[in-house]
Amino acid sequence: MKPNLHHRLGDLQLRILQVLWERPDAPVGTVHEALKPERDLAYTTVATMLRKMEARGLVSHREEGRTFLYQARVAAEEVNRSVGAHLVERLFEGSLADAVSHLLTSREVSASELDQLEKLIKDAKRKRRTL
User: Fold this and answer.
1) Do 80 and 129 have their domain in common?
2) For residue 89, what is the DSSP state?
3) Which residues pair with 62 in a beta bridge?
4) How far is the CA of 39 from the CAs of 27, 31, 54, 61, 79, in angstroms?
5) CATH of the domain at 17
6) Which tens digits make up the pLDDT trace of 19-68?
7) What is the pTM of this model?
C-alpha cells in the first residue's frame, strides 16, 4: 500500500475502490458487474476509470493471460482517514468539535452510538495523558 496521502476521490472512484477492497484481483468485468445495479456504465467507462486510477497510484494490475486483474493500492482505512480529514478541514475549518456537533445535531444518533463516542473520547484522553 502507498504511504498516507491526501486522497481526493470522486464517487465512482471510491465505489471502484470499495469493489476492489471486497474482491482483490478483479478483472474489469467483475468491477463492471458489481457497479451495474447502482450505475448504468459502459464496460469501457469502467476500464478507462481503472486506467486513470492506476496512473494516480490508487490501483495496480497484473496480467493473467490476456486479462488484467486489478487490486487497490490504498487501504480502506487510509482513504477513510484522508477523506475524513479533508472533510473536517474544508467544511469545518479544521474544527473536529464543530464536525462532531454537526453530526450529532443533523441526524438521529442511537444510545449505542453515543456510548461508543464516549468510549472513544475517554480512550483519546487516556492516550493524550500518556504522551
Assistant:
1) no
2) H
3) 69
4) 18, 11, 21, 23, 22
5) 1.10.10.10
6) 999 999 999 999 999 999 999 999 999 999 999 999 999 999 999 999 99
7) 0.75
